[in-house]
Give the backbone structure.
Amino acid sequence: MNISGVRELDVVVIGAGQAGLSAAHHLRRVGLEPDAGFVVLDHAPRPGGAWQFRWPSLTYGKVHGMHALPGMELTGADPDRPSSEVIGAYFAAYEERFGLRVHRPVEVSAVREGSGGRLLVETSEGTYAARALINATGTWDRPFWPRYPGQETFRGRQLHTANYPGPEEFAGQRVIVVGGGASGTQHLMEIAGHAADTFWVTRSEPVFREGPFTEEWGRAAVAMVEERVRRGLPPRSVVSVTGLPMTDAVRRAREQGVLDRLPMFDRITPSGVAWDDGRVVEADVILWATGFRPAVDHLAPLKLREPGGGIRAEDTRAVRDGRVHLVGYGPSASTIGANRAGRAAVRSVMRLLKETGEDSGDERADREADDGRTDREAGAVVAVPVSGR
């Protein structure tokens, strides 16, 4: 720490979800030490990333695909146990095994230009001056709430997926679920067994995908999301371009009419929703399963956004400031993508540190960057049954 009370480090990692822990792991592999060469800051109260906030009925067996963190697989998990518990315990064990020393709960309020080429990271535990930043803040903290005429007049309850409590709370109620993604279908299939009636409303016709999610299909989907990020547009989720998996549960729900879809309504009324063609639906609850946006407001002082509204990035590096790396953003907003992004970000960061002329384990960084074992670790799939993030 220098005389001004600002603590100087090589790298600050913001966020301790899948992407942040992957980056921290690779920072350790290249020779940086926690609390000396780098620090991981997490605003959550405990390990688990966004998974710790998932609703109890989202059991581990319903997760559509969870890839192990690099260097430590998750095996033998009970598929009937809440995913928040399974993955929370796994992340906690991972942090301990690799000695990552995550600081929590710590709120990061802003990242701004400092002196000497460093970035100032202003937090609830003080200010850090970093030569590089790995931002792994994900999207969970920024639920997207669309706005429709009359929304403030609705007398019933409105809530978002981020606050979904599970299906039991909707017993005997008429529930409108808005959103055509995986969360929307999961909510509907759960709630239908408890509610008096359910209605599914989406902006566009949902696309269901038959067959396995192949590596080739995944690469094509990631490439579509990546292209938007390169152009400086707000990223779309990977699932938005892959479609919804046609599982046995989804097939049964469609046969039962649970997933019969209505087009987007035009306005909200005190007692429900209405369309301009005269149709109305009375409801007690509107559940917005409308997704999330990247939680990057703390980066605003750096002016990274493009005119299109997104942060343009090449690989993980922000084009407007090469010291800033975005992991778990856009094409890396999936568990396997986050793993690979963490490794790529560290490789880029170590090149940056080498270029600035300070010794930060550069030879080891080069050696680790070419270590094929890391790729295999990053892509290790958790060996548990999935019936179905």
